[in-house]
Amino acid sequence: MRLTQGQFSFLPDLTDEEITKQVQYALDQGWAVAVEFTDDPHPRNSYWTMWGNPMFDLRDAKGVMMEIDACRAAHPDQYVKVLAFDSSHGFETVRMAFLINRPAEEPGFELLRAEGPGRRIGYTVRSYATGRPPGERYGGETRHGT
Amino acid sequence: MSGTTGLLDQETRDRPSDTPSVDLDALYRESGIGGMLAGMDRELVGLKPVKTRIREIAALLLVERARRSIGLRAEPPSLHMCFTGNPGTGKTSVARRMAGLLHGLGYIRRDHVVSVTRDDLVGQYIGHTAPKTKEVLKRAMGGVLFIDEAYYLYRPENERDYGQEAIEILLQVMEDNRDDLVVILAGYRDRMEVFFRSNPGMASRIAHHVDFPDYEAEELLDIARLMTAGMQYRLAPEAERAMADYILRRMAQPRFANARSIRNALDRARLRQANRLFEARGNAIAAADLLTIAEEDIRRSRVFTQ
């Protein structure tokens, strides 16, 4: 199941050229661009791991693309996203966020039902991938190791 | 760019008998290089070899753009440069101008200059240098990276110096990201030569070695005029003669630093002018007095008493 979240989630995955243009747009607005990655694809997981610090002092997208390439090379089997943070008064929040890398195979989510009092059903989802410990999800890292 | 090429391709295909032609003059006019080169001539005194080289580069980039517009192969030329010359010959000023020029010619994407020295590139302990250098390179991407006194990067007396690591990262980026970054090294001639001798890789990756000549006395006087005008001062006619004398005497003395010495001399003349006006307080001071640097402000310099 193809995971979608953030901006452009209904579009096909962005090419490097398209990512460059989006990043350049963010930099032109004066936003700080950050790169984050995770192997826990749950939609409510807001704690992704930061790839370095947010880049506050760049003017050209190429600098960000270098970090993006480095992050994708280090974590080819994980989700990677780009964030643009607007520090101006009144916003002080993330203005853009989109996925730029995904594992080759995405097992998707299981629907869990919990029966409560009066046969009330509570629903939740659980990623099949998170059944395994971090680092072994999506096969990638263990295959390198063994 | 690709859009125009495609269009022209189609045109050539449709009319195969036509040889495509390019209006170089139109390209020249729309790029605004003429204005930039004229500005350079106006604001930079002397520096003939430097200006010639910049003109050549401008012509090369323009022709390259024309070639691309008719679908010919146009490899972006390597434009890493090395500016050598004595102190105060305008290396930094030209480097700052270079970014605007290359941006106007469409060679680099932004017109920013990131100016660094050894301290910004080289770390203090093992593993500190690479991230530091990469951080600077990231910041400079798309524009010009200006490394002042580049020979300090290499310290031959200490074989475990981290400068070598910075040089290697720099070399790799200069090679791989040629269309993203122009690196300009600057420094005094003799020391740069030693630096290149011990880093042949660096020397071979730099296509343009530009030598900044020392200024002539008349050129220095022109510079003094430009500087005073820039600071909204005026040299009285006698003061100008005094300045010419000053320049001749100062040039003969040790530690003469070309335009920088002139700037310092003018700063001191301003100091003496302010002092003179302050001593004479009580009388009304005309606007012209505030503007004018008089002969005595320059004649009272240490250079004339020695």
UniProtKB/TrEMBL annotation, chain A:
SMART domains: RuBisCO_small. It holds the Pfam family RuBisCO_small. Coiled coil: none annotated. Keywords: Calvin cycle, Carbon dioxide fixation. Residues 4-103 form the Ribulose bisphosphate carboxylase small subunit domain. Heterohexadecamer of 8 large and 8 small subunits. The basic functional RuBisCO is composed of a large chain homodimer in a 'head-to-tail' conformation. In form I RuBisCO this homodimer is arranged in a barrel-like tetramer with the small subunits forming a tetrameric 'cap' on each end of the 'barrel'. RuBisCO catalyzes two reactions: the carboxylation of D-ribulose 1,5-bisphosphate, the primary event in carbon dioxide fixation, as well as the oxidative fragmentation of the pentose substrate. Both reactions occur simultaneously and in competition at the same active site. Although the small subunit is not catalytic it is essential for maximal activity. Belongs to the RuBisCO small chain family. This is Ribulose bisphosphate carboxylase small subunit. The gene is cbbS.
